[in-house]
Amino acid sequence: MRAHARELTFVLKVLPTLPSGFVDRVTGSPIIEEARYRTPSRDVTALLYRPPGSGRRPAMVLCLGVVPFGVDHPQVPRLCDALARAGFVALIHWSETMRDRRLEPQDAEDIAYAYASLLERDDVDASRSGLYGTCVGGTFALLAAAHPLIRDRLRFVGAFAPFSSMWTLARDIVSCSRERDGGTEPWAVDPLTREVFVRIVNHLLSPAHARDIFEAPDAASADAVLRALPSSARDRLDAMSPILHLTDIHAPCVVFGHDRDDLVIPIGESRRLAAALAGRHGVSFTEYAMFQHADPTKRRLAPLAFLRELTRFYGSLYPMFRMTA
């Protein structure tokens, strides 16, 4: 009952299309604070949302990735407000490189240090806490969950629309194709996805290697070019590929979901993760037809379709909320 109460509060507040006025009346307004912590790369000041009152609460570090709708989008504070009203201490970890639309392996370690610092708070119950991320933030939440600093201190890790491997994502971007229902189909690569990939390639590789990648005519050629990269570049691609680090994720609850029509990260990425995790206890993967890349404000569904997808969304998150209760 406690788990359902938490989740119902969260879902009603996080989805702007649902009525939630009565939730505001029966829950206290979240307290918003600045949290400061140190990672191996920098000193960080982040926003922390917590419920009023005393006692030890479950906590969550949120990794929102590149955030295509911008860090000032109203959905960001709505998400944190929903978590705090549901009884969580919620810390938003922003990556400076992701805000610059780049990806660096170091970001996973930074998330691990953010989580470790959160567990030091007197009002946090480490036995009911974990990570959640969206898009590349979800990918790096999974990578952080494998980090030795925190991998045995997580109750759950969740991701929405993550990619499983920089290798397969890069191949699909270069070839403008994606896997779909056992085959491949053309993919009009989202401008944000291409921009981030171009920045990664230009940052990691020499102009000659970058040119070889961008001129690959198809998926097989793109894969061959990637495999021929210098070992240092291949190591960095490996370091940003959670599918290669799944055995190091010890969290007893792993939940992730993906919209079937996601244009930013193809759903094939999450399906590869699901296949790799098949048979593992505590893993839940759900496909949706409700969002436009984690943004619930951009898709309009007929009432019955919305109810069906809302039920699926609720059910997909329940294992995580059950762990916090």
Can you walk through the features of this model?
The protein is 43% helix and 18% strand. Helix 12 links the parallel strand 9 and strand 10. Helix 7 packs across helix 10 (219-227). It is α/β, with parallel strands linked by helices. The chain has two domains: 2-164 and 242-324, Rossmann fold (3-Layer(aba) Sandwich); 166-238, no CATH class. The protein is globular and about 60 Å long.
Distance between the termini: 9 Å
- The helix fraction, in percent, is 40-55%
Query: CATH homologous superfamily name of the largest domain?
Result: Alpha/Beta hydrolase fold, catalytic domain
Which class of secondary structure composition applies to the elements?
alpha/beta
- Reading the helices and strands in chain order gives HHEEEHEHHEHEHEEHHHHEHEH
Return Rg in Å.
19 Å
Which blocks of ≥5 consecutive residues have pLDDT under 50? none
